Protein backbone atom coordinates (compact mmCIF):
# COMPACT_ATOMS: atom_id res chain seq x y z
CA UNK A 1 0.00 0.00 0.00
CA UNK A 2 1.23 3.47 -0.90
CA UNK A 3 0.18 6.50 1.17
CA UNK A 4 0.93 10.13 0.30
CA UNK A 5 1.74 12.58 3.08
CA UNK A 6 0.97 16.27 3.18
CA UNK A 7 2.49 18.06 6.15
CA UNK A 8 1.76 21.40 7.80
CA UNK A 9 5.33 21.29 9.16
CA UNK A 10 6.92 22.05 5.79
CA UNK A 11 6.39 24.62 3.05
CA UNK A 12 3.80 23.91 0.40
CA UNK A 13 5.15 21.76 -2.41
CA UNK A 14 6.71 23.86 -5.18
CA UNK A 15 5.32 21.51 -7.82
CA UNK A 16 2.97 18.59 -8.43
CA UNK A 17 4.33 16.19 -5.78
CA UNK A 18 3.70 15.03 -2.21
CA UNK A 19 5.80 15.98 0.82
CA UNK A 20 6.39 12.27 1.31
CA UNK A 21 5.21 8.83 0.29
CA UNK A 22 4.98 5.85 2.62
CA UNK A 23 5.41 2.37 1.14
CA UNK A 24 6.39 -1.01 2.61
CA UNK A 25 7.52 0.49 5.93
CA UNK A 26 9.62 3.23 4.34
CA UNK A 27 9.04 6.98 4.17
CA UNK A 28 10.42 8.76 1.11
CA UNK A 29 10.65 12.50 1.81
CA UNK A 30 10.70 14.81 -1.21
CA UNK A 31 13.49 17.35 -1.49
CA UNK A 32 13.11 20.17 1.01
CA UNK A 33 14.35 23.66 0.30
CA UNK A 34 15.05 26.47 2.77
CA UNK A 35 11.51 27.79 3.07
CA UNK A 36 9.46 27.96 6.26
CA UNK A 37 6.18 26.07 6.63
CA UNK A 38 4.49 29.42 5.91
CA UNK A 39 6.17 29.48 2.50
CA UNK A 40 8.74 32.18 3.29
CA UNK A 41 12.34 31.84 2.05
CA UNK A 42 15.05 31.64 4.72
CA UNK A 43 17.76 34.25 4.35
CA UNK A 44 21.21 34.08 5.88
CA UNK A 45 24.09 31.63 5.75
CA UNK A 46 24.11 28.23 4.12
CA UNK A 47 24.00 26.90 7.69
CA UNK A 48 20.74 28.75 8.35
CA UNK A 49 19.30 27.43 5.11
CA UNK A 50 20.47 23.87 5.73
CA UNK A 51 18.96 23.95 9.22
CA UNK A 52 15.56 24.90 7.75
CA UNK A 53 15.76 22.14 5.12
CA UNK A 54 16.46 19.59 7.85
CA UNK A 55 13.73 21.01 10.08
CA UNK A 56 11.27 20.56 7.21
CA UNK A 57 12.40 16.95 6.70
CA UNK A 58 11.94 16.17 10.40
CA UNK A 59 8.51 17.84 10.44
CA UNK A 60 7.38 15.69 7.54
CA UNK A 61 8.76 12.55 9.18
CA UNK A 62 6.91 13.37 12.40
CA UNK A 63 3.69 13.51 10.37
CA UNK A 64 4.59 10.18 8.74
CA UNK A 65 5.02 7.92 11.80
CA UNK A 66 8.79 8.29 11.61
CA UNK A 67 11.53 10.46 13.07
CA UNK A 68 15.06 11.79 12.67
CA UNK A 69 16.46 8.64 14.28
CA UNK A 70 14.70 6.50 11.65
CA UNK A 71 16.44 8.13 8.68
CA UNK A 72 18.53 5.64 6.73
CA UNK A 73 19.64 7.79 3.77
CA UNK A 74 20.00 11.52 3.08
CA UNK A 75 20.62 13.13 -0.31
CA UNK A 76 21.99 16.67 -0.36
CA UNK A 77 22.07 18.99 -3.37
CA UNK A 78 24.26 22.11 -3.33
CA UNK A 79 24.65 24.66 -6.11
CA UNK A 80 28.18 25.41 -4.91
CA UNK A 81 30.51 22.84 -3.36
CA UNK A 82 32.31 25.71 -1.64
CA UNK A 83 29.36 25.48 0.81
CA UNK A 84 30.14 21.82 1.65
CA UNK A 85 31.97 22.60 4.92
CA UNK A 86 29.37 25.07 6.16
CA UNK A 87 26.61 22.64 5.26
CA UNK A 88 28.36 19.88 7.22
CA UNK A 89 28.57 22.13 10.29
CA UNK A 90 24.79 22.62 10.27
CA UNK A 91 24.20 18.94 9.44
CA UNK A 92 26.34 17.79 12.39
CA UNK A 93 24.18 19.81 14.79
CA UNK A 94 21.18 17.72 13.72
CA UNK A 95 22.93 14.39 13.16
CA UNK A 96 25.29 14.30 16.14
CA UNK A 97 25.09 10.63 17.14
CA UNK A 98 22.84 9.12 14.46
CA UNK A 99 24.67 9.16 11.14
CA UNK A 100 22.60 7.83 8.22
CA UNK A 101 24.11 7.06 4.83
CA UNK A 102 24.44 10.23 2.75
CA UNK A 103 25.23 11.57 -0.68
CA UNK A 104 26.06 15.16 -1.51
CA UNK A 105 26.20 16.40 -5.09
CA UNK A 106 26.68 19.72 -6.82
CA UNK A 107 23.95 20.79 -9.21
CA UNK A 108 23.71 23.68 -11.62
CA UNK A 109 20.54 25.10 -10.05
CA UNK A 110 17.64 24.23 -7.75
CA UNK A 111 13.93 25.14 -7.66
CA UNK A 112 13.05 28.73 -6.78
CA UNK A 113 16.72 29.75 -7.03
CA UNK A 114 17.76 28.22 -3.69
CA UNK A 115 21.27 26.94 -3.08
CA UNK A 116 20.54 23.81 -1.02
CA UNK A 117 17.98 20.99 -1.03
CA UNK A 118 17.74 17.92 1.21
CA UNK A 119 15.74 14.72 0.73
CA UNK A 120 15.59 11.64 2.95
CA UNK A 121 14.50 8.05 3.23
CA UNK A 122 13.43 6.73 6.62
CA UNK A 123 11.75 3.70 8.11
CA UNK A 124 8.44 3.98 9.94
CA UNK A 125 8.35 3.59 13.71
CA UNK A 126 7.45 0.08 14.87
Report on this structure:
This protein has 126 residues and is α+β, with helices and mostly antiparallel strands. It has helices spanning 46-62, 84-94, and strands spanning 2-5, 20-23, 26-32, 71-78, 101-106, 116-123. Strands 1-2-3-6-4-5 form a six-stranded mixed β-sheet. Strand 2 and strand 3 (26-32) form a beta hairpin. The mean pLDDT is 97.
Assign an overall shape. Answer: globular
SSE pattern = EEEHEHEE
What does the radius of gyration come to?
14 Å
Please give the number of β-strands. 6
- Structural class by helix and strand composition: alpha+beta
Could you name the ranges where pLDDT drops below 50 across 5 or more consecutive residues? none
| Helicity level | 10-25%
**Termini separation:** 17 Å
Largest sheet: 6 strands, mixed
What is the average of the pLDDT values? 97
Query: Biggest sheet, strands in spatial order?
Result: 1-2-3-6-4-5
Put simply, the count of helices is 2
Beta-sheet strand percentage? 25-35%
